[in-house]
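hey so i finally got around to running the thing on that chain from the lab meeting. sorry it took forever, my laptop kept dying and i had to restart like 3 times. anyway pasting the input first so we r on the same page abt which one it is
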Amino acid sequence: MNFVATDSKLISALLDLEDIEVMDARLTSDKKLLIRVKSTKEKTPCRTCGGETKPHGYGRTLQLRHLPIFGHETIIEITPPRFICERCNDHPTTTQTLSWYKRNGHYTAAYEQHILLSLVHSTIADVSIKEAISEQAIQLIVDKSITDKINWKGIKRLGVIGIDEIALKKGYKDFLSLVTCRVDGKMHILGVIEGREKAVIKAFFESIPKKKRKTISAVCCDMYDGYSNAAKEVFGGAIPVVADRFHVAKLYRAALLLIRKKELARLRKELSPEEYKLLKPAIALLVKKKECYSRDDKAVLEALFKFSPAIKAAYRMARQLTAIFNAKHRKETAVNKIDQWIASVQASEVVCFNGFITTLQKYKNEITNYFIDRDTSGFVEGFNNKVKVMKRRCYGIFNIKHFFQRLFLDLSGYRIYFENQGVIAAI
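ok and heres what got predicted. didnt touch it at all, straight out
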């Protein structure tokens, strides 16, 4: 297939590559679009001294895969000019490289960007099939573009840091610690750390540049000592460590669900099948938001409380604690409110919260730090759900570096691309 001059101009516009002139284009026997171009860049500095050079023949011809045009796999062929330096003693030659490809690459920069975008919320195996390139080649593109280290210069401030663990394998084995932050509505993955011991977490915190540390407003985590102690030792008292309120709520709701389970087992034996059947919807209602109750929901709860005063008392106390966290108290007020709550529970016959109260008293400072700025790591919990989806999608990723790369792409791939294109993306 031959193209006239106007076709060349069109193709040049479609390629959107700098410093080239389209020589010709044709369809190969396997329906690939082969476009031959030449460089229009007249000068190339010496690779040794950086000085001026003179033309000195041509290097080897390169074939680089580019973005598809009109549905055809597109290959760009270029024979780069070479230049010689007469200033250096050994007169080295330099083969010209243009901005849109690397010296030893097989793809244009635009095509590599296309591969990275295709990987967002997808898998290497799927992209390999769709693009007809090997999984190894795709991984090389990823490795070249994304390291396993955060670019601290790309983040102006850190704000609230969230840290939580996830099991890399089933059975809560091979824990990874995920460190994230959310600034201006944008989620950033800061680190994927192998293990959750204090030493490795502390080492990560110490790797944060000192200027960036000053931009941290709080560190939110669960009540695992390895996380909180590492933060305290590195940041001291300047940055509060906040026990995430959702982890706290999970603990006292677990106590409520435990007594629910015990009481329902008792009622199943004591009540008729018809009576017990009416109470089954209450299993989910005890942790449902009160404002979401329907008239039928309220009727079910009233029936349950009639048969089980113990559940009623525990439910009332759990709601009281939730109300404390929902109110906009100052820390000092919240401490007093929580102390009063503990005293009321201990004075009652409700014992299901005894274990939780021990935890509450141990971590009272971290828990009540929530009331300083009402910081939570709720964004981490949402992020963890995305991580689990990614693990299932990719059939398990056990390489820490690859794990970080895929998380980075899922979180930031689209955003970075659109920002580079001058388009605002709310991702």
